[in-house]
Specification:
The structure is a single chain. With 457 residues, the protein is α+β, with helices and mostly antiparallel strands. The protein has two domains: 270 residues, BirA Bifunctional Protein, domain 2 (2-Layer Sandwich); 93 residues, Anticodon-binding domain (Rossmann fold). Helix content is 42%, strand content 18%. It is built from 18 helices and 16 strands. The strands form three sheets. An eight-stranded mixed β-sheet has the order 1-5-6-11-10-9-7-8. A five-stranded mixed β-sheet has the order 13-12-14-15-16. It has a three-stranded antiparallel β-sheet with strand order 2-4-3. A hairpin with an 8-residue loop joins strand 9 and strand 10. Helix 1 runs antiparallel to helix 7 and helix 1 crosses helix 14. The radius of gyration is 28 Å and the shape is elongated. The two termini are 50 Å apart.
Length: 457
């Protein structure tokens, strides 16, 4: 018995209507990136394992898909490492390459490798798939697209302001009715760790705090205990979980809390500048929120942290990002500050689909289909089809003179906008009987009139 076809969990096939909707989404994001001065680049789907490993923290490294060596390279497996129970070293000897986990680390590698070919500050955007060995669930896939924009070579906070405006512009253009752009600063989190007396455990604290909306206050406290955070430190951190009020009020409370921390106050100063500038310029639809629990567990953020959520929809963050002051230092290029954001295209797609926000045009298929009445009529239709296609209009003829009902059903199933019916009389009069498949209206037109109509609609 033949095996039933299937795809791996966490991946998806896309029907033509799905691809049309995704292209609409990508086009909106790409258009905004270009408007804000970003240039496109691409990097390989897989990198050397040494490029990726150790850049995302312990949790991230576990989610990297490794590519098993093939052929003669398999003989180079480090058996001694296996005997010594050194599994990371053994895994590295089996897999020299890995699928990219995100677009940011490969971008850092790209900048270092091409530093003499690009101008700084370098502004790039990238729309490509990434892979994570995460547990598949609603809104979380093992293969998905990221739409990233980054700036490297400048520590100007103007770019943080621009990214907030970019989030607002894209999601407003996609007609998302309500969304919140959350901001924090890693220096504020460092200040919290310092004030609480647990500065050396900053990563453990931020990873736990970042899960507050998922596991609740009790869950965060329990995780902090498991990470060895002292009861005294937890007692100092705990009041922050229930911070409330306006952004200004929360900033005042945090300023008082971090009064003894130089780095914490530096984070407050940076975040205040961004919030004030955004408030001065104004946003179209976004709600802007200072969220002290926003930590995003990735190790490389050093300044601003961004996260965007769609309000009223059961979905995790749909966008994110932050500043990484020395990411390129991982590849030997020190002092190269950068900041970047990522649009979670697949999650945004699911939100737009759930809310019915995709334009009707994305559901439309072929613009024009000629019904096939036989070889004589087909010959005339093919000449008109060539002329219509030359004007940039998509059209085709049904491949055989099947029953008219079958051809019309095919047109309906493909969401064809117009059907052309050309028989002996139409050929003699050099006219096309054009049927609007949505309204059912029919009208005789010349080929030039058909072209004009379809170009206009």
């Amino acid at each position: 018995m033949s095996q039933k076809p299937a795809i791996p969990k966490g991946t998806r096939d896309f029907l033509p209507v799905d691809v049309a909707r995704r292209n609409y989404l990508f086009d909106v994001i790409k258009g905004a990136f270009k408007k804000y001065g970003f240039s496109p680049i691409e990097t390989p789907s897989f990198e050397l394992s040494t490029t990726l490993m150790g850049k995302y923290g312990e949790e991230g490294d576990r989610l990297i898909f490794r590519i098993l060596n093939s052929g003669e390279k398999m003989k180079k497996a480090d058996i001694e490492a296996l005997k010594q129970d050194n599994l990371p070293r053994f895994a590295n000897s089996l897999a020299e390459k890995a699928l990219r986990y995100d677009l940011t680390v490969p971008f850092a590698r790209y900048v270092v490798q091409h530093q003499n070919e690009i101008e700084f500050p370098f502004k790039r955007y990238q729309i490509q798939p990434v892979w994570r060995a995460d547990r598949p669930q609603h809104g979380r896939y093992q293969e998905f697209y990221q739409c990233d924009a980054d700036v490297v070579g400048s520590d100007s906070l103007l770019y943080e302001v621009d990214f907030v405006l970019l989030f607002d512009e894209v999601l407003t253009q996609l007609n998302l009715p309500s969304f919140t752009i959350k901001l924090n600063n890693r220096k504020i989190l460092s200040g919290i760790a310092e004030v609480s007396g647990a500065h050396e455990q900053l990563v453990d604290i931020t990873v736990a705090i970042d899960k507050l909306d998922k596991i609740g206050e009790d869950g965060v406290v329990e995780e902090l205990k498991q990470k060895g955070i002292s009861a005294t430190a937890i007692a100092k951190i705990k009041p922050l979980f229930s911070f409330s009020g306006s952004n200004q009020e929360k900033m005042e409370k945090m300023t008082a809390f971090l009064a003894s921390s130089e780095i914490g106050l530096e984070g407050i100063k940076e975040l205040t500048y961004v919030l004030n500038q955004v408030n001065e310029i104004g946003v179209q639809r976004a709600e802007i929120e200072f969220d002290i629990t926003l930590a995003r567990g990735l190790n490389y953020y050093t300044g601003a942290i961004f996260e965007v959520k769609a309000n009223g929809v059961k979905m995790g963050s749909i966008c994110g990002g932050g500043r990484y002051d020395d990411l390129t230092g991982l590849f030997g290029m020190k002092g190269m500050s950068g900041v970047g954001i990522s649009f979670g295209a697949d999650r945004i797609y699911d939100v737009l689909l759930e809310l019915g926000l995709f334009p009707k045009e994305t559901e439309q298929g072929l613009s024009l289909m000629f019904v096939n009445f036989g070889e004589t009529e087909q010959a005339s239709c093919l000449k008109w089809i060539k002329e219509i296609r030359a004007n940039g209009i998509d059209c085709e003829i049904y491949p055989s003179a099947a029953k008219i009902q079958k051809q019309m059903k095919y047109a309906n199933d493909r969401h064809v906008r117009y059907v052309a019916l050309v028989g002996e009389r139409e050929i003699q009069d050099q006219l096309i009987l054009l049927k609007n498949m949505e309204t059912g209206e029919q009208e005789e037109m010349s080929v030039d009139e058909v072209i004009h109509l379809l170009k206009k609609s």
